[in-house]
Amino acid sequence: MSDPWTDLDAFHRWFWQKLEDGPSARDTPARLLALATTSAEGAAARMVVLRAVDAPARVLEVHTDLRSAKVAEIRTDPRATLLLWDPSDQLQVRLSCQVTVAAGAEVTRVWTRLPPQVRRVYGGAAASGTPLPAPERLRPPAGPDRFAVLRCQVTSIDALHLGRDLHARARWRDRDGWEGQWIAP
Ligand SMILES: Cc1cc2nc3c(=O)[nH]c(=O)nc-3n(C[C@H](O)[C@H](O)[C@H](O)COP(=O)(O)O)c2cc1C
């Protein structure tokens, strides 16, 4: 295969494949992404685990606590960025998204598939960000009340590959199908 960063379509397929591999492969860079939102302070970013990818629908899924700051921020402004850095391929991908928060009956099927040790993340008595006298141990929650799925609909993409002699950057916009364009790095 020729270098994927020399052909616009190959470049696009290259990083979508990395994203699709993220949820199932523990050691792949796309397993962990940074999620940036707008916040009262201006902007907030945090690491999240990529849980599911539907490439044809352009949707990436992240699991979170319904009471976390990011959920309130997304409900105020659904625009967000998911950021991937793959050091072995010197590849940065910025995914601009519109995010919706799914909870309650809508996420029951996802919740039932989560192993007990993962469900414990959603068992804390205090809401995420609440002051505590000391760190609390994880404990199993009674149910999925605090569990939410963030559905991130990708609307545009900015990808940058840093080669030794070539820096390749391209942007894609969703125009009833991806419309790509090389841009200056
Ligand atoms: C390696 C790693 C993975 C994480 N994965 C998630 C995740 O999938 N979902 C999540 O809500 N928080 C995850 N967190 C915690 C967030 O980074 C963040 O601290 C927490 O969600 C509170 O963020 P907020 O107050 O901005 O909402 C992860 C943290 C680390 C270090």
Automatic annotation (TrEMBL):
InterPro entries, A to Z: Pyridox_Oxase, Pyridox_Oxase_Alr4036_FMN-bd, Split_barrel_FMN-bd
Keyword annotations of the record: Flavoprotein, FMN, Oxidoreductase
Pyridoxamine 5'-phosphate oxidase Alr4036 family FMN-binding domain location: 25-101
Keyword RNA-binding (UniProt): no
The keyword Transferase is assigned to this record: no
Entry protein name: Pyridoxamine 5'-phosphate oxidase family protein
Pfam families per record: Pyridox_oxase_2
Cofactor dependence: FMN
Organism: Meridianimarinicoccus marinus
